[in-house]
Design a protein that fits this description.
3 domains, Rossmann fold, 8-stranded mixed beta sheet, lipid metabolism, 49% helix, lyase, 2-enoyl-CoA Hydratase, Chain A, domain 1, fatty acid metabolism, NAD+ binding, globular, 708 residues, isomerase
């Protein structure tokens, strides 16, 4: 049983049940610790201490969770007392035993409340963790000090540095909880525990006195190892090393001093732009799931799914679907292609087995839900079909004509096209209301982004089905309108062009990649080209050649490499050399010579750029196109652009996406940059009307995000 949540009730409701004061936290949706909850908790503990009839206290959460943590929406606003550390200290100081009974999430400040309680019980489905690191924070209400004392330095560091959630059994093994309930009735389990403690005259047992750090030598070694590892891995992030410092403080300082040390580090993190970026990312990921269609329409069924095409994307999509427990029928042109498609699927699983991520059994079980065919009739029962054949309008239309013929009424017909006009595809069949874009990113079983592309004539419940699919696949769905490249690829084309201009003007591709990596992307644009295959972009450029503005600047370097057959990693050469099949490329003097020749041909005298100048141009181009995309309604809000870039294109999460980044450096500064760059190339650098308008009104992109 879980307690029901009444929206109008007080955030914290104390009620005496015999000699136990049951303190129910009831603050929908997730019992986050806002000021009212914090105040209510202190008041409840005060009343427990003051009331002779109370012999124990039980803290439980109403609804589906214990407590999800500090109220993230309060960050960045003026602090309202009491502070969370004060609440935790007050609970720990209670003169009567306090039991925390945990169901659902006990995360961050939620777990800190439980750790400040004297006894802990968890029931099935509980998720305990200290995920602050994922928000650019550290546990700041005694979590670093109490967790280390309770479960030891190594286990505490592993929890806090990964931010992972643990279930009740693991929590018990670690010593985070004292027992796991026999049933999932958290209230009954907690109450029984509290009565048992009263019956056995158990005293308050304070975590600050726990002995998990008693072995000083082992603790110091664990801290040193974590510090070395974190220095290697934390790539520009502030909070992980501070977490290690706090655990060191727990080892070396008395509890109260350790708390002060932790609080100072916490406040540094809380005020950092990284925290702002990561919290923005957290809300953006949730906000993108809400589209006008998902609010009003029920998704259609999603049991049997067809995938057409077994190439790079078809196979990756099939694996993503199988991994979510869905059944997949793959359609290919002929037996040989189908065999290749199946082999592609198997290869993805074999790669995961090789890396130790999955077992043979998991692969075998997934493949039981996979079959293939070469005739479309096999799709007669499909609820959803995702087409991933060649990027060619005529081929796509022929496929959709077949789907129109065989699929049952109401089946959702989706295309994974990267650039083609989905309205045109939809208009070519008798049921345009069922046609949707589902744009996956490569590798489709790994990349988190799914653009749900909404053509003009699609039915709302078809769009809702796209979002429902994303949920099943655990992907971040972003609603996009129809245009060349939708949100992500359209932006990519523009910032890649800005990079090409920089390259021809004097920066080497290696310097550009380096500067972009230093900004926080895992790879630079030329490494990405080499990884994806230069031939893909080459084909797109050839397709667009006829419609390109003849006055627009065009850099020929990429074409020159492709003409030599240098398509990147798969051919051993691209912008980099990949010797002996190496995955990391080396700079190539011949490529630099080709660039020099192109500069000469274009009449460009090369000049030097600092890394900062490179990043400013790269970002300005990205932000400007993002603004155009919002302005045209292709993306609903700036946060949709942010989520797209973070989950599909490696934009560093701690910077919150390009639009949030623009706000953080000041939109007016971005506009000044664009106008400055426009002096050299007014055709490419045309300030987006949205930026001009926002700056004129003293507003920023966040003002267009309802969630912010
Ligand atoms: N503060 C404020 N709002 C929160 C919140 C929080 N800590 N956690 C979740 N929410 C909101 C979400 O934004 C969402 O709002 P919406 O309905 O308006 O979009 C709503 O609660 C439901 O959240 P989810 O959609 O994520 O619901 P799920 O059921 O899928 O997941 C959850 C629940 C596992 C609790 C997940 O929301 C979560 O992981 N929350 C964040 C947990 C966290 O990071 N806690 C640490 C906070 S920092 C801290 O505690 C600092 C301390 O050490 C001092
Ligand atoms: P691919 O060339 O690897 O695979 C295409 C497959 O479709 C081939 O196996 C081919 O045999 C099959 N096919 C062709 N015509 C068919 C037909 N009439 N019936 C059944 N099967 C047919 O191509 P890739 O890279 O998988 O791309 C597929 C689609 O996904 C394209 O629209 C592409 O733009 C899009 N896309 C590609 C991404 C990438 O990174 N490769 C990323 C996102 C989308």
């Amino acid at each position: 049983m879980t307690l029901s949540s009444a929206p109008e009730a007080a955030a914290v409701q104390p009620a005496l049940r015999g000699s136990v004061l049951v303190v129910t936290i009831d603050h929908a949706p997730v019992n986050a610790l806002n000021a009212a909850v914090r105040r209510g908790l202190i008041d409840a503990i005060e009343s427990a201490d003051a009331n002779a009839a109370v012999r124990a206290v039980l803290i439980v959460g109403a609804g589906r969770n214990f407590i999800a943590g500090a109220d993230i929406r309060e960050f960045g606003k003026p602090a309202v007392p009491p502070s969370l550390p004060d609440v935790c200290n007050r609970i720990e100081a209670c003169g009567k035993p306090v039991v925390a009974a945990i169901h659902g999430a006990a995360l961050g400040g939620g777990l800190e409340i439980a750790l400040a309680s004297h006894y802990r019980i968890a029931v099935e489905g509980a998720k305990l963790g200290l995920p602050e690191v994922q928000l650019g924070l550290l546990p700041g209400a005694g979590g670093t000090q109490r967790t280390a004392r309770l479960i030891g330095a190594q286990a505490a560091l592993s929890l806090m540095l990964s931010g992972r959630h643990v279930g009740p059994q693991e929590a018990l093994r670690l010593g985070l909880v004292d027992r796991v309930g026999q049933s999932d009735d958290v209230f009954a389990e907690g109450l029984a525990y509290a009565h048992e403690l009263i019956a056995t005259h158990a005293a308050p047992r304070r975590t600050k006195n726990a002995r998990g750090l008693a072995d000083k030598e082992a603790s110091a070694a664990a801290i040193a190892a974590a510090r070395a590892d974190t220095q290697k891995k934390s790539r520009g992030l502030l909070s992980p090393l501070k977490i290690v410092d706090c655990v060191e403080a727990a080892l070396n300082l008395p509890f109260d001093e350790g708390l002060r040390f932790e609080r100072e580090r916490f406040l540094e993190c809380r005020e950092s732009p990284q925290r702002a970026g990561l919290v923005h990312a957290f809300f953006a990921e949730r906000e993108t799931q809400k589209s006008p269609e998902t609010r009003g329409a029920q998704p259609r069924a999603l049991d049997r799914i067809g995938v057409i095409g077994g190439g790079t994307m078809g196979a990756g999509i099939a694996v993503a679907l199988l991994d979510a427990g869905l059944s997949v029928t793959m359609i290919e042109r002929d037996d040989a292609s189908l065999e290749r498609g199946r082999a592609h699927v198997e290869k993805v699983y074999d790669g995961l087995i090789e890396k130790g991520r999955i077992t043979q059994e998991i692969k075998a079980r997934a493949l039981q839900r996979f079959d293939g065919d070469t005739t479309y009739d096999a799709l007669a029962d499909a609820d959803l079909v995702i087409e991933a054949v060649f990027e060619d309008m005529a081929v796509k239309k022929a496929v959709f004509a077949q789907l129109d013929r065989v699929c049952k009424p109401g089946a959702v017909l989706a295309t994974n096209t990267s650039y083609l006009d989905i309205d045109e595809i939809a208009a070519s069949i008798s049921r345009p209301q069922d046609v949707l874009g589902l744009h996956f990113f490569s590798p489709a079983n790994i990349m988190k982004l799914l653009e749900v592309v909404v053509p003009a004539r699609v039915a709302a419940d078809v769009v809702a089905t796209g979002f429902e699919l994303a949920k099943k696949l655990k992907k971040v769905a972003v609603r996009a309108g129809v245009c060349d490249g939708f949100i992500g690829n359209r932006m990519l084309a523009v910032y890649r062009t800005a990079a090409d201009h920089l390259m021809e003007d004097g920066a080497s591709p290696y310097q550009i990649d380096n500067a972009v990596r230093d900004f926080g992307f895992p790879m630079g644009p030329y490494q990405v080209v080499d990884l994806a295959g230069g031939d893909i972009g080459w084909a797109a450029r050839k397709r667009r050649a006829a419609t390109r503005d003849p006055k627009a600047r065009y850099v020929h370097v990429s074409d020159a490499l492709c003409e030599r057959g240098w398509f990147g990693q798969k051919t051993g050469r691209g912008f980099y050399r990949y010797e002996g099949g190496a995955r990391a490329g080396k700079p190539d003097a011949e490529v630099e010579a080709i660039i020099d020749a192109e500069r000469e041909r274009a009449g460009v005298t090369p000049r030097a750029f600092s890394d900062e100048q490179i990043v400013r141009r790269y970002m300005a181009a990205m932000i400007n196109e993002g603004a155009n995309i919002v302005h045209e309604g292709i993306a609903q809000r700036p946060l949709d652009v942010d989520a797209t870039l973070m989950h599909g294109f490696g934009f560093p999460r701690y910077r919150g996406g390009p639009m949030h980044f623009a706000d953080s450096v000041g939109l007016e500064n971005v506009l000044t940059d664009i106008r400055e760059f426009a002096k050299e190339d007014p055709l490419f650098w045309r300030a987006s009307p949205l930026i001009v308008d926002l700056v004129a009104r003293g507003k920023n992109f966040a003002s267009l995000n309802q969630a912010d």
